[in-house]
Write a structure and sequence with these properties.
8 strands, alpha+beta, 3 helices, Phosphatidylethanolamine-binding Protein
C-alpha cells in the first residue's frame, strides 16, 4: 500500500514540476513577444537529428541545430498551419538591434506535414555571435484560417535577404494568424557552427 502512495506522491510532484516549467517557459515567451502570444499554447516537440530535444529554454549548441529538426504538434489534418522560427536577441539580448532574426518559415502546412508546406525561408541553424552571450530561438506554430497566398520572396539557406529585422508581429497581422497554438524554445551560445553559417550566408564578418 505504501508503495502505491509513494508512486502517487511522486507523480504529483513531477506533474507540479512540469506545470512550473511550462509556466516559466510561457512567461519568457510572452516577455519576448507580448504582442503576439495570448492564452496558453501547447508545447510542441522539436527533435534534432542527433537525438537532442528542445525543452523550454534548455541550452542547445549551434552545432546540434545544424540540420533541420523534426517538429510535431497536435494538428487538425484538415487545417493549414504556419511554422516560424525567430531569434529576438540578435546580436545580443542587451543590444538586439537585429531582431527578429528569421531562421525558418513554412506556411500552408497541411496538418503537420511540413514537407508538403510552402517553404518561404529555408532552415538555417542557430548562430549566436561570439562573445555576445546567450540567444534564444523560438519555434511557433500558427493555425491558419484558410490556405494563404504568401507574397514574400522565397529565400534559400544560402541567402541572408529578409532574415534580419523580420517582424513576427507584423507578419502575424498581415496574414491574420492570431496567437500561436504551439511553441517551444532553446537557449544557445556561440560555437564554430555560427561562423560556418555566416560563411554559408556570405555575411556578418564583424560577428565572427
Amino acid at each position: 500500500m505504501k508503495f502505491f502512495v509513494i508512486l502517487g506522491l511522486l507523480a504529483a510532484v513531477l506533474s507540479f514540476a512540469a506545470a512550473g516549467d511550462y509556466n516559466k517557459g510561457l512567461e519568457e515567451a510572452k516577455e519576448a513577444y507580448p504582442d503576439v502570444i495570448q492564452g496558453t499554447p501547447e508545447v510542441i516537440t522539436v527533435e534534432f537529428d542527433n537525438g537532442v530535444f528542445m525543452d523550454l529554454g534548455k541550452n542547445i549548441t549551434p552545432t546540434e541545430t545544424k540540420n533541420q529538426p523534426k517538429v510535431d504538434w497536435n494538428a487538425d489534418k484538415d487545417s493549414y498551419y504556419t511554422l516560424v522560427v525567430v531569434d529576438p536577441d540578435g546580436p545580443s539580448r542587451e543590444d538586439n538591434y537585429m531582431r527578429d532574426i528569421l531562421t525558418w518559415l513554412v506556411g500552408n502546412i497541411p496538418g503537420k506535414d511540413i514537407a508538403a508546406g510552402d517553404v518561404l525561408y529555408e532552415y538555417v541553424s542557430a548562430a549566436p555571435p561570439k562573445d555576445m552571450g546567450m540567444n534564444r530561438y523560438f519555434y511557433f506554430i500558427f493555425k491558419q484560417l484558410s490556405k494563404l497566398v504568401f507574397d514574400e520572396k522565397r529565400v534559400d539557406r544560402y541567402t541572408i535577404d529578409g532574415r534580419i529585422n523580420f517582424s513576427l508581429k507584423n507578419f502575424t497581422i498581415k496574414y491574420e494568424l492570431g496567437s500561436p497554438v504551439g511553441f517551444n524554445f532553446d537557449t544557445t551560445y556561440w560555437d564554430q557552427q555560427s561562423n560556418d553559417l555566416y560563411k554559408q550566408l556570405n555575411c556578418c564578418e564583424s560577428l565572427m
